[in-house]
C-alpha cells in the first residue's frame, strides 16, 4: 500500500443536508425584508484579497444580507458581486464540517471524522517527532489568505521559517521584483495606481472589470466617465477593450517588443519627461542606446500591431503625462520573461514621469499600528532559501513550487507541510506529480480550509476553518491613499465544528509548550490592545467597523522635490547594475516566443466578475450567476474544426491531458491563434456538489511552464490546446 494515497471522495461522504437550505428557504416567507428585528455587524470581506469593509445584516436572528460600509474609503462604501454573496460562503452546505484524520485499515485508506483534541494532538505529536529526528527547521507553510499568518507564527515559534504564498510565483512576483529593482519599492497590494486622476491608462493583458477588484474598478470607471484615454493591449477584445479608444490585439507573447517600441518613440521623438528623468533616474543613456533597433516597424513584425498605431499611442501617452498610467497588471506570470517585461513597464512609467505623480502611482500610507507584544521566535540556523531555491538569489520570498519539490527526493529538506487555504493542484501548474511524490515522503501534511478541495486528498489531517463571517482576523491596515483600519469580527457563531485559524495555531502551540507565542484567550484581546494604542478600542470598532486617519505624508512628489529611492543608487534604476551583477540582462531584452504546434492554439485564461480564483464556484449564490465557463474560439478557427457555437467539446493539450466538457463560445473577440477560458472551473472533488465536473480547468491543462529566471515565477501562457469533439 502507498504511504499516503490520494483520497477521492464520493458525494455522500461527510455530506450535509441539501444545498444551502437557509438560502433556499428564504422564498417561503413573503413579508418585506427588513420589517423584522434587524441587527448589523461590521466585517471585512474575504471573498478576495481586496478587503472591502461591510456590514452583515441579520433579521430576527437570521442572515439577511451584506452591504458596503459607507465609512470605508477603500471600497467607497460598496461591495462587488462576490462580496454581496458572502452569505453563500457561510451557508454552503458542502463546507468542511469537522476535523478529518486519514486512517488505514484492511479496506485501504480513508478519512474519518475526528475530535479537535485528537486532530491537534496528532499534529503536535508529529511535529515533535520531526524535530527529534530532523531538527526544528523542516516544516513548511504554503498559504494564501489572512489566517495563514497564525500558522506562520506557529511554525516560526517552532523554529521553521520556510514559507511561500503561491500568489508570488504564480501571480504577482515578477511585478514585485521588477518595480523593486527599478524604484526600490513594489506596487503593493492594494495596488498604488491613481486611476481616479489618470488622463491616459494603458492596460496590457489586464482585464479590469472582469478581474474585479472593487476600488480599482470604481476608479477606472471614474476615469472612463472623465473621458480619459484608454489603450488596451490584449489578444482578446475584453470588456475594457470595448471601452477603449485603442485596442491593440497583440500577437501573444510579444508584449515586450511593443513596450520597447513605445520607449523607442518616446526617446527618439523627445517625448519623455526630461526633467523627471534627469532628477530621479540613472541609466538613461544606456536605455536610449538599447532601444534604438526596436522601432515600430520592427515591432510590427513581432506584434502584428500597425507601426502608425504604435506611434500614435506612444504620443497619446506622452501628451497626457505624467497623468498617464501604464498599469502594472497583477497576474503577470505569462511567458517566462516576466520580470524583464515588468521592468519594461516600470521603465516606461519612469519615462512618462508617473511614479509618485498624480494620475500615475501615488505614495501609499498605512496606520502606524503597534504589533501586539510577543516574544521573538528563534532565528533560522539554515539558509533555507539557498538550500531550496538557490538558483534565484534575488527572489525575496519563498517560491511555492520549489518548496513543494523540496518535500521529496533523496535530500528532501521539508518533512512536514502545512497548506492554508490554497488548493495547490489548481494553483501551482503541473503540481500533481510533485504532490504525489511529496505524499509518499512527508511525515506530516496538514490542510486548513473552509471548503473541500482537491488538495485535501493528500492530507493526513484536514482542519475545517470557519468562514470570515464567523471569526476575528487581524485588523485591515494596508498601505493606501488614506490610512484606515477596518475590523473583521464574528457575525455568527461558527457553523458545524469549524474554528478560526488563530485558535488552531494556538492550540497546537500549547501542545508543543509554545503557548507564550499565543498569550491570549481570544484574538479579540490582541485587536483591542492594538486599537487602544491608536486612541480607539474594540468596542468602538464594533460600532464603526472602520476608522479613517489623516495622512502624515504627501500623496505625490512635490515639484522638484529631492527623493531618495530605496534602490542601491538612491535613484530610479533604468539600467540595473544589480541585475547585471547577478548575470541577468540589465535592460529588458526581447526574445520571440515559441509558437504553438500545428493544429494547436494558445491557451489564454482570465477572470470573471462572479468568481475568485477557484474558490467560489460552489458558492450557491455565485454558482447561480455563473455556473460554468465557456471556451472562446474565433469563427475562423471554429470553422476549420467544424465546431458550432454552444456545442460542448473537450480541450486537449499536446501532452495528452483532456479537460472536462466545456461549452463553446464562437466569437470574433479572440484572435484565431488563441482560445480563452475563465479560470477556476473543472473541479474534481465530489464533495463540491454544485461545481464538481463542471467546466474546463485551465490549471489542469498546463502541463508546461516557462520559469522566469529572475523571480522563479511560473509562466503559464506557454500551453496550447486543440479540440476533441463530443460523440453525439
Ligand atoms: Fe469582497 Fe469584492 Fe471587495 Fe473582493 S472586491 S473584497 S470580493 S467586495
β-sheet strand percentage: 15-25%
Low-pLDDT parts are 9-27
Oligomer: single chain
Helix fraction, binned, reads 25-40%
User: Largest sheet, if any?
Assistant: 7 strands, mixed
- The helix count comes to 23
Amino- and carboxy-terminal Cα gap: 41 Å
> Structural class from helices and strands?
alpha/beta
Shape: globular
Bound molecules: iron/sulfur cluster
Strand order of the largest sheet: 5-4-15-14-13-6-7
DSSP strand count: 26
> Rg, please?
26 Å
Q: What value does the average pLDDT take?
A: 94
Can you give me a brief rundown of this structure?
With 728 residues, the protein is α/β, with parallel strands linked by helices. It is built from 23 helices and 26 strands.
Amino acid at each position: 500500500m502507498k504511504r499516503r494515497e490520494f483520497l477521492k471522495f464520493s458525494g455522500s461522504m461527510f455530506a450535509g443536508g441539501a444545498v444551502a437550505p437557509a438560502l433556499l428557504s428564504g422564498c417561503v416567507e413573503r413579508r418585506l425584508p427588513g420589517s423584522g428585528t434587524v441587527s448589523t455587524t461590521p466585517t471585512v470581506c474575504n471573498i478576495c484579497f481586496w478587503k472591502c469593509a461591510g456590514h452583515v445584516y441579520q433579521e430576527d436572528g437570521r442572515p439577511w444580507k451584506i452591504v458596503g460600509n459607507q465609512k470605508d474609503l477603500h471600497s467607497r462604501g460598496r461591495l462587488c458581486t462576490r462580496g454581496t454573496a458572502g452569505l453563500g460562503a457561510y451557508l454552503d452546505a458542502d463546507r468542511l464540517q469537522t476535523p478529518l484524520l486519514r486512517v488505514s485499515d484492511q479496506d485501504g485508506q480513508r478519512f474519518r471524522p475526528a475530535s479537535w483534541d485528537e486532530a491537534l494532538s496528532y499534529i503536535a505529536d508529529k511535529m515533535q517527532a520531526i524535530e527529534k529526528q530532523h531538527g526544528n527547521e523542516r516544516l513548511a507553510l504554503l498559504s494564501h489568505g489572512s489566517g495563514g499568518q497564525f500558522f506562520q507564527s506557529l511554525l516560526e515559534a517552532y523554529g521553521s521559517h520556510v514559507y511561500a504564498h503561491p500568489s508570488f510565483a504564480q501571480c504577482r512576483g515578477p511585478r514585485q521584483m521588477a518595480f523593486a529593482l527599478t524604484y526600490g519599492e513594489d506596487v503593493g497590494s492594494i495596488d498604488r495606481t491613481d486611476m481616479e486622476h489618470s488622463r491616459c491608462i494603458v492596460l496590457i493583458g489586464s482585464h479590469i472589470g472582469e478581474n474585479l477588484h472593487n476600488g480599482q474598478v470604481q476608479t477606472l470607471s471614474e476615469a472612463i466617465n472623465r473621458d480619459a484615454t484608454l489603450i488596451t493591449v490584449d489578444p482578446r477584445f475584453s470588456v475594457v477593450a470595448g471601452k477603449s479608444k485603442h485596442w491593440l490585439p497583440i500577437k501573444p507573447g510579444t508584449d515586450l517588443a511593443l513596450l520597447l517600441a513605445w520607449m523607442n518613440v518616446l526617446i527618439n521623438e523627445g517625448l519623455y519627461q526630461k526633467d523627471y528623468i534627469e532628477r530621479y533616474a540613472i541609466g538613461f543613456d544606456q536605455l536610449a542606446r538599447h532601444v534604438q533597433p526596436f522601432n515600430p516597424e520592427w515591432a510590427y513584425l513581432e506584434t502584428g500591431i500597425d507601426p502608425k498605431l504604435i506611434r500614435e499611442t506612444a504620443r497619446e501617452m506622452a501628451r497626457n503625462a505624467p497623468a498617464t498610467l501604464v498599469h502594472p497588471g497583477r497576474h503577470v506570470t505569462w511567458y517566462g520573461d516576466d520580470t524583464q517585461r515588468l521592468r519594461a513597464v516600470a521603465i516606461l512609467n519612469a519615462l512618462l514621469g508617473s511614479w509618485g505623480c498624480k494620475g500615475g502611482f501615488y505614495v501609499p500610507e498605512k496606520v502606524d499600528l503597534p504589533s501586539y507584544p510577543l516574544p521573538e521566535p528563534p532565528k533560522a540556523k539554515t539558509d533555507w532559501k539557498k538550500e531550496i531555491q538557490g538558483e534565484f538569489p534575488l527572489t525575496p520570498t519563498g517560491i511555492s513550487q520549489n518548496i513543494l519539490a523540496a518535500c521529496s527526493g533523496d535530500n528532501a529538506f521539508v518533512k512536514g507541510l502545512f497548506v492554508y487555504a490554497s488548493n495547490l493542484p489548481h494553483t501551482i501548474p503541473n503540481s500533481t506529480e510533485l504532490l504525489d511524490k511529496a505524499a509518499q515522503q512527508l511525515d506530516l501534511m496538514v490542510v486548513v480550509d473552509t471548503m473541500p478541495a482537491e488538495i485535501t486528498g493528500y492530507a493526513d489531517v484536514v482542519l475545517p476553518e470557519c468562514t470570515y463571517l464567523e471569526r476575528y482576523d487581524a485588523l485591515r491596515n494596508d498601505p493606501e491613499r488614506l490610512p484606515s483600519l477596518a475590523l473583521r469580527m464574528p457575525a455568527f457563531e461558527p457553523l458545524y465544528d469549524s474554528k478560526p485559524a488563530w485558535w488552531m495555531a494556538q492550540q497546537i502551540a500549547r501542545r508543543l509548550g509554545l503557548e507564550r507565542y499565543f498569550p491570549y484567550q481570544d484574538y479579540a484581546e490582541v485587536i483591542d490592545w492594538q486599537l487602544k494604542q491608536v486612541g480607539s478600542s474594540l468596542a468602538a470598532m464594533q460600532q464603526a467597523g472602520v476608522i479613517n486617519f489623516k495622512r502624515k505624508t504627501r500623496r505625490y512628489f512635490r515639484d522638484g522635490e529631492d527623493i531618495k529611492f530605496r534602490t542601491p543608487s538612491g535613484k530610479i534604476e533604468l539600467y540595473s547594475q544589480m541585475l547585471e551583477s547577478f548575470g541577468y540582462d540589465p535592460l529588458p531584452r526581447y526574445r520571440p516566443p515559441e509558437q504553438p504546434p500545428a493544429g494547436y492554439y494558445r491557451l489564454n485564461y482570465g477572470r470573471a466578475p462572479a468568481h475568485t480564483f477557484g474558490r467560489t464556484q460552489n458558492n450557491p449564490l455565485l454558482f447561480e450567476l455563473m455556473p460554468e465557463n465557456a471556451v472562446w474560439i474565433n469563427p475562423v478557427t471554429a470553422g476549420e474544426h467544424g465546431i458550432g457555437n454552444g456545442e460542448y467539446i473537450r480541450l486537449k493539450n499536446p501532452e495528452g491531458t483532456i479537460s472536462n466538457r466545456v461549452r463553446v463560445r464562437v466569437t470574433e473577440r479572440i484572435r484565431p491563434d488563441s482560445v480563452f477560458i475563465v479560470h477556476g472551473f473543472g473541479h474534481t472533488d465530489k464533495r463540491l456538489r454544485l461545481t464538481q465536473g463542471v467546466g474546463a480547468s485551465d490549471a489542469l491543462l498546463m502541463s508546461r511552464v516557462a520559469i522566469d529566471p529572475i523571480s522563479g515565477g511560473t509562466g503559464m501562457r506557454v500551453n496550447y490546446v486543440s479540440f476533441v469533439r463530443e460523440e453525439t
